[in-house]
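Handout, section B. The chain below has 122 residues.
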Amino acid sequence: MRTIDDRIVHELNTTVPTASFAGKIDASQTCKQLYESLMAAHASRDRVIKNCIAQTSSVVKQLREEREKNLDNLTLLKQLRKEQTKLKWMQSELNVEEVVNDRSWKVFNERCRIHFKPPKNE
């Protein structure tokens, strides 16, 4: 799901012209399309990660409740720990996502700030 972020430098180098080639390509349209693609990709990934966190949180809550009723069940404890580890991993993925997004927007702004101004509300 991070393909657009992984390839943003290449995408900008191949689609946004340097000053010497500025007249041959509509850089403002290219930057606008890239902006919209980045926004959609970032929103989609954020939604998916948060959905996974919500589902895993629900499972952890359920397992905790079961664990309180049956403290001697080691299988239940192992499953709870496994789900808690998964939940922490997913929460840390939000931090990774923030770093990836910041990097992409920095590169985007460096190359497209002359050609395209994003809407203020976003």
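Note. The chain has a mean pLDDT of 86. Compare this with the example in section A.
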